[in-house]
From TrEMBL:
Recorded coiled-coil stretches: none
Organism encoding this protein: Dyadobacter psychrophilus
A cellular component annotation (GO) from this entry: membrane
Domain (Signal transduction histidine kinase internal region): residue spans on this chain: 122-198
Name of the protein in question: Histidine kinase
Length: 308
């Protein structure tokens, strides 16, 4: 048998049926099954595709060798050739089906990742836009008054406000930042809140542990802190208490504020709402965080632990 004849036999026996089966399953049957979810229809169509692939292969063999299997070997000869040809078509079809399934799976993973990233960016943008406008107004107003009394101190506070706005505009564009930067931002925010009161005992902030090179999602804690200042009276001692405990593999954050009346259902849950913050945490730290909020004895408490 010459090499040319061998190639002709392989084309009819394996190549044509294999390609027919592969691309039929890959391009048509898998999308059809994905739309309909009908297994019986898929099985019937698989038999049809195998039959068409077998006929195509046998027709090619017949045309190439100018003979028919019915004339030479009868029905038994046709069956002897058709069964392995159909098997080759089905095996290649199954391979095409599986490959298309993996392609769809990877596409879904990529799409979900893109959607999650877009959701994250939208939620982060929402957080950035939710900084209390009253805080900005009061801070600027207090700085304006302070300019006449102590221009040096007023300038320092104005620089802190500038740093806060710069942080919100530029530092939060990445998915994570150094914990040291986040803490510096929070300290400046607290310093500006202190401008609102003459009570030096109203606000307590404690940071325990070394942040080192730990990374954290930007503006992860500030919604809770902002909310604490929004729902308290800074003329009272211990109105706001903030604690950070930094461990080797985790960061524990506690925020407690004194409130003089029971909060409404939608209040005291964060400027963004507790539900939105929980969604953001689930997106950023799936199975790697724990959030607990409690209210009692006129104190609202938030405890958040994240792995970092």
């Amino acid at each position: 048998m010459s090499f040319t004849n061998w190639c002709q036999i392989m084309a009819g026996f394996a190549v044509i049926p294999g390609l027919t089966g592969f691309y039929s399953f890959h391009s048509f049957l898998f999308p059809y099954y994905l739309r309909t979810k009908k297994s019986l229809h898929l099985l019937l169509l698989s038999v049809v595709v195998a039959g068409i692939a077998t006929l195509a292969g046998m027709l090619l063999l017949t045309l190439q060798f100018n003979t028919t299997y019915l004339e030479n070997d009868g029905i038994s000869g046709v069956i002897a050739i058709a069964i392995p040809v159909a098997f080759i078509a089905l095996v290649n079809g199954a391979a095409g089906f599986v490959i298309r399934g993996f392609e769809a799976w990877f596409h879904d993973i990529k799409l979900k990742a893109e959607l999650n990233h877009k959701n994250y960016q939208m939620e982060l943008a929402l957080i950035k836009s939710q900084i209390d406008p009253h805080f900005l107004f009061n801070t600027i107003n207090n700085i304006d008054i302070l300019i006449e009394k102590d221009s040096i101190k007023a300038s320092a506070y104005l620089n802190k406000l500038s740093d806060i706005m710069r942080f919100m505009l530029y530092e939060t564009k990445t998915n994570s930042i150094l914990l040291t930067k986040e803490l510096a931002y929070i300290e400046k925010y607290i310093a500006l809140q202190k401008v609102r009161t003459s009570n030096v005992n109203a606000i307590n902030c404690i940071i325990q542990g070394d942040p080192g090179s730990k990374m954290i999602a930007p503006m992860l804690f500030i919604p809770f802190i902002e909310n604490a200042f929004k729902h308290t009276n800074l003329t009272i001692d211990g109105a706001v208490k903030i604690i950070f405990v930094i461990g080797k593999k985790m960061v524990m954050f506690e925020c407690e504020n004194l409130i003089e009346q029971t909060p409404q259902p939608e209040e005291q849950s964060g400027g963004l709402g507790k539900e939105l913050m929980e969604r953001r945490l689930a997106l950023l730290y799936p199975a790697k965080h724990h959030l607990l909020t409690t209210f009692g004895d006129h104190h609202y408490r938030v405890k958040l632990t994240v792995e970092a």
